[in-house]
Amino acid sequence: MNKYNRLKNFRHDTYEMLVKSKDATFELMDSIMTRENARSLAEFSLSPFFQRQWCSTYEAIEDSRPNGNKLMKRYTQEIDTLEYTLLGIDHTQWECKDSPTMKDRGYQYSHSSLNSSVVGQGYSTIAWLPPLKEKGSWALPLRHERITSFETPLSKARWQLKQVCRELPEKRRKLVVLDCEYGNGKFIQQTADIEISKLIRVRSNLCLYSKPDPYSGRGRPKKHGAKWKLNQCDDFPQSNKVLEMEDSSLGLIRISKWTELHFYNAPTQQLTLFKIERLKEKKTGSLHRPLWLIWVGEEFLSLEYIWSQYKRRFGLEHWYRFAKQRLHWTLPNFRTPDRCQRWSNLIVNITWQLWLSKDLVQEHHLPWQKPQQNLTPGRVALSMTSLLIEIGSPTLSPKSRGKSHGWPQGRKRNKAKVYPTIKKQQSKSKKRRKT
Predict the structure, then answer these.
(1) How far, in Å, CA of 26 to CA of 52, rounded?
(2) Which pLDDT score, from 0 to 100, does residue 108 have?
(3) Backbone angles phi, psi at 383, to 5 degrees
(4) Residues 144, 348: contact at Cβ < 8 Å?
(5) pTM for this prediction
(6) CA distance linking residue 187 with residue 67, whole number of Å
(7) 70 CB contacts (<8 Å, ≥6 apart)?
(8) Residues 6+ apart with CB under 8 A from 301
(9) How far apart are CA 29 and CA 49, in angstroms?
(10) 287 vs 83, which has greater pLDDT?
(11) What does the DSSP assignment read for 186-199?
């Protein structure tokens, strides 16, 4: 079997799923992979892989119809058969402050902004986190979709998790790792009907509750037992299990485990609490703050693998940076949210093509860069030119169609409609004194 067949079949299936303007759209994707720097969407037409005029870059996004459901089903076919499937969920923002004609813009949280928020759109991502022999930052999104003004990151994550779990084999175990924003009873209650285990980081000021005492026979049975404040962990009872181990990046760590706990607003969902302590002191002599994790669902990992599997969640954050900086995800300024979603679907597909090309490319690195054994997504993208020339493209050559008649004389041009910026929670106005 030809070693390129897997990549060729994937590229051909992608080409067929683009429906309209698939030739221009597919050539645009190859241009994105091979062009490291760009200042606008039109600059991708300068790539030798793009055989059309610069205006076709915008027309490709306007006309193409990449279906997210069909693409997700195709991605799940490339997931390796393992003991369990590890998924990760997170969300990020696409800043669109200079796009007043775009509908459904809102205020999105941004840690790098002076006001902690930017005007734009939020995107939720669920990705497969593949196992790596060495250090790496690969995350392969299965769904990367816009969070509308009628949704929240929690509701969107629940919907994406349900859609992905339907396509994965039922008998295979599944685990999803999430950040502290999803570590609350509301999300645990919403995802209780989905057959998947959850490993979530929780904030240190959280309160959990133990199992209630047996029913005494009088009154309503208790739902909650003793209250556990994570920032007062010195008062906790003795842990069920403790393990000290050496971590490659943190040094000596201690992992403690407590069972049969729950959130106040989700008393029926039992969880396991993990406390991860870094025993090596800081340079100042003080101790590091502990990290708290909870496990909800079927437990199938031993204590020594809890931290190593949760660390793989950071690959999704690395993918966000890679998509924005190298794949130019937030570079274009589209007018409608639908075009933004089509563009986002193309970026996800490019990531999968890079993953399938990881073992096929001949590494091309700059003179001051060290060679790598396990190639990163950026290093694979840097080496894609020769591979794309070798395997070819399923697109057809463009045909000249003559000059356009242009804008009809006397026809008026209407200005684009300006939409207001949506603010979900309005602050209460202060009461004025009566005069």
Answers:
(1) 12
(2) 86
(3) -110, 15
(4) yes
(5) 0.91
(6) 28
(7) 17
(8) 175, 309
(9) 9
(10) 83
(11) HHHHHTTTS--EEE
